[in-house]
Design goal:
With 418 residues, the chain is of the alpha+beta class. It folds into three domains: 9-118, Gcn5-related N-acetyltransferase (GNAT) (Aminopeptidase, 3-Layer(aba) Sandwich), CATH 3.40.630.30; 143-306, Aminopeptidase (3-Layer(aba) Sandwich); 314-406, SCP2 sterol-binding domain (Nonspecific Lipid-transfer Protein, Chain A), CATH 3.30.1050. The protein has ten helices and 21 strands. It has helices spanning 18-28, 38-46, 101-116, 170-187, 196-203, 259-269, 315-321, 369-376, 382-387, 396-406; strands at 9-12, 54-59, 62-75, 81-92, 120-124, 137-138, 141-148, 164-168, 217-222, 228-237, 240-241, 244-245, 247-256, 275-283, 299-306, 308-312, 328-335, 343-350, 353-358, 365-368, 391-393. The chain has a seven-stranded mixed beta sheet with strand order 1-2-3-4-5-16-6, sandwiched between helices. The radius of gyration is 24 Å and the shape is globular. The protein binds coenzyme A (COA). Coenzyme A binds at residues 28-29, 90-92, 97-103, 125-127, 129-130, 133. Coenzyme A binds next to β4 and α3.
Length: 418
């Protein structure tokens, strides 16, 4: 029988591919390619395309799949940072799905990660079922909140006992927020560094050519010595019903470099006049918000799920870069059908640091590489994973020891998509 399908060629992007690659990206994400402002859109997107980290699949001249990565700096438990390959812009055009194009692109990318010396890859998965097969595991979780302000039993609002809050314009915000975020991200595992472009988009210095710029309210929290320790960005839907205000305040970003800053910004957000509901998305699963309310149940969790997925590549490097809850040793046997993370490793770690190297000792725990991704930032329990057969342990005591080592006081949180 004649083969009617010519081979689809996967190759690294060149500048000549840009327009076609962007068209395929839109189609893959079910967006009709825009004819309006076409050149400006292409120019805007060039900022995100690093030719060495971008590939496309081509069926003749037609681009039918896109794949891209960016270096992302991730904080791990204990405060060390690692450069991860942040995979993004993954699409395969509907007519070319389920022929292995994603699998081919992913294999190329993971090989490149190893060549570049990146010890892990991370991504934010559109659907749960896509990336486990490539050795990724869900490593952080998220929660969306809706606060019914009238049920929150807040008491009367008082300005902060320590420090102060100021509403500022975007220029003032842009002067302080990046530095606050730097301190915050080094203190919270799971967070990724924000690039300059992030702040340009928030402050309106850079605007997507197809979007209309909409400003937001920006609040800074300063401590008693005048240092800015936190910020809040929000917008409000001004609604009224029966002659009464029913505004909805949407928290776009609430970041505290100290617990005081975080608490004061939340107290402010839930007590703005005319606001009946506060909506906050992609918050950490252990957010302090409910604990600040007289009635914690008024902060309803409207969605919860996995967020950042993590694919270990260099196990000794990963495990030796984080700290652990208690000082102990463990032998982990990691299975990886793609080969990168396969092996048996002796971890000797504690609150002050760790070492990890290949070993021939008998394993305490046997697990798949994606399960290690699941555990790495401290969001999962080894006992829970063993209960569903994802970890095999030499004995129950080894499982409990691993649990105490890997879990962290605050849960990891990745506030940003990329
Ligand atoms: C998700 C997507 C990239 C998959 O591309 P693809 O080329 O069809 O994937 P492959 O053919 O390489 O599939 C490899 C395997 O993954 C499975 N798979 C692919 N997409 C899946 C999905 N959404 N859910 C569950 N399994 C999926 C395939 O069935 C196949 O399984 P098999 O190896 O057991 O046969 C593509 O469907 C797509 O572009 N979807 C819309 C955009 C999107 O969600 N992108 C991801 C953004 S994070």
């Amino acid at each position: 029988m004649t083969e009617h399908r010519p081979a689809v060629d996967i190759r690294w992007y060149t500048a000549d591919d840009h327009a076609e690659w962007c068209r395929a990206l839109d189609v893959g994400f079910l967006r009709l390619p825009s004819r309006e402002n076409h050149e400006a859109v292409l120019e805007y997107r060039r900022r995100w395309v690093d030719p060495d980290r971008t590939m496309g699949a081509f069926d003749g001249p037609r681009c039918v799949a896109t794949f891209n990565s960016q270096p992302q700096v991730l904080t791990v438990p204990g405060g060390a940072t690692l450069v991860a390959s942040g995979v993004t812009n993954v699409t395969v055009t509907s007519t070319h799905r389920r022929r292995g194009l994603l699998s081919r692109m992913m294999a190329r990318e993971l090989d490149r990660c190893r060549e570049r010396g990146e010890p892990l890859a991370i991504l934010d998965a559109a659907e749960y079922g896509i990336y486990g097969r490539y050795g990724y595991g869900p490593a952080t979780s998220m929660v969306n909140f809706e606060v019914d302000v009238h049920r929150a039993a807040l008491g009367s609002y008082a300005p902060p006992a320590n420090g102060r809050l100021d509403l500022v314009d975007p220029a003032e915000f842009g002067k302080h927020a990046p530095e606050v975020h730097e301190r915050f991200r080094l203190a919270r595992h799971g967070v990724i560094a924000r690039k300059a472009i992030w702040w340009q988009l928030v402050t309106g210095e850079l605007v997507h050519p197809l979007k209309q710029w909409k400003d937001a309210f920006h609040v800074l929290y300063r401590n008693d010595s005048g240092q800015v320790d936190g910020f809040l960005t929000y917008h409000v839907e001004d609604e009224w019903a029966d002659h009464r205000p029913q505004g909805v305040l949407h928290v776009q970003d609430l970041i505290g470099a100290t617990p005081e800053a975080e608490a004061e910004l939340w107290r402010y957000a839930v007590s703005v006049d005319w606001v009946a509901k506060v909506v906050a998305e992609n918050r950490p699963p252990d957010d302090i918000l409910p604990l600040l309310l007289g009635d914690a149940r008024s902060a309803r969790r409207t969605a919860a799920g996995d967020f950042l997925w993590l694919r270990p590549l260099d196990v000794p490097r990963l495990l030796s870069e984080r700290t652990y809850g208690v000082a102990d040793t463990l032998v982990l046997e990691v299975h990886d059908h793609m080969g990168y993370a396969q092996g048996r490793f002796l971890l000797d770690g504690g609150p002050d640091g760790a070492t990890c190297a290949a070993t021939t000792r008998e394993p305490d725990l046997v697990l798949e590489v994606g399960t290690l991704g699941n555990l790495y930032l401290g969001d999962e329990s080894t006992v829970r994973l063993a209960a569903v057969g994802r970890i095999e342990a030499s004995d129950r005591e080894a499982l409990s020891r691993a649990d105490v080592m890997f879990r962290t006081g605050r849960r990891p949180w990745c506030p940003d998509s990329f």
